[in-house]
Design brief:
Strands 1-2-3-4-5-7-8-9-10-12 form a ten-stranded antiparallel barrel. The protein has five helices and twelve strands. The radius of gyration is 17 Å and the shape is globular. The chain has helices spanning about 1-15, 40-45, 50-55, 65-70, 140-145, and strands at about 60, 75-80, 90-100, 105-115, 120-125, 155, 160-165, 170-175, 190-195, 200-210, 215, 225. Helix content is about 15%, strand content about 35%. Strand 4 and strand 5 form a beta hairpin. With about 230 residues, the chain is of the alpha+beta class. Residues about 1-20 and about 20-40 have low confidence and may be disordered.
Length: about 230
């Protein structure tokens, strides 16, 4: 019972502290699901990078998944735009907490999202010093405005390579094979798969040993986070 309780925490913390400072290795995410009613015609015509910026903003919850399958926990995730964006780059503060302890997040990171071409973007993941000071902070908060971009540390090899499916208005991708090397004892590398839509995100984190044996993470699929209205 205790193992199940702390499993998602261990998985996500591995990505925060167990990877070499730069980027993570990833497996493919599960298949993209069909377009939802929430996706408007305007969204479909929107530049894919502008649309991605819209998707990676807001409050998300795995509550619905947790109600259907208790192997998945009720986790809340906040994505907050920070710093000034450009046509090719934007930054997002990402905070994840158990639903019962929102004031004590188990993961705090910064995503640097970079446009590669008309259908591809990369998400680079960064750790941040003294993350506790950003808990619960909202877009435009002074704490973010005064936060120096130079102090965040990239997780080498852990970038998520995303491809945009125009027909389904869906992004899907993963880390590169075995690229996100871990410094945690017994763990050789970590993989992350991701699916992004206008109203949800699916994130599948797993850790592996040197022989390719899965050590931690769900064997059923990723956590499904629905965007809260």
């Amino acid at each position: 019972m205790l193992l199940r309780l702390f499993l998602p925490l261990l998985i996500l913390v591995l990505c925060v502290s167990g990877c070499k400072t730069k980027k993570v290795t990833i497996d493919s995410a599960t298949e993209s699901s069909p377009i939802t009613e929430a996706t408007t015609d305007h969204d479909r015509r929107m530049d894919h990078f502008v649309f991605l910026k819209k998707c990676l903003n807001g409050n998300f919850s795995s509550y619905e998944q947790n109600q259907k399958d208790k192997d998945f926990f009720d986790i809340r995730m906040r994505l907050v735009p920070i710093w000034k964006s450009t046509d090719n780059v934007f930054y997002v503060y990402v905070e994840q907490s158990m639903a019962a302890t929102l004031d004590n997040p188990f993961s705090q990171q910064v995503y640097k999202v970079v446009k590669v071409d008309d259908t591809h973007s990369n998400i680079f993941i960064y750790s941040m010093p003294d993350p506790e000071r950003f808990i619960g902070k909202k877009e435009g908060d002074y704490m973010f405005e005064s936060f120096d971009q130079e102090v965040i540390v990239e997780k080498i090899g852990c970038e998520i390579v995303l491809a945009f499916n125009k027909e389904q208005s869906t992004y899907s991708g993963s880390t590169n094979e075995k690229s996100c090397v871990s410094t945690t004892a017994g763990v050789a590398w970590i993989s992350t798969g991701m699916i992004i839509k206008d109203d949800m995100m699916e994130i599948w984190n797993r850790s592996w040993d040197a022989t390719g044996q899965q050590l931690k993470g769900s064997t059923k699929g990723g956590y499904i986070f629905k965007k809260e209205v």
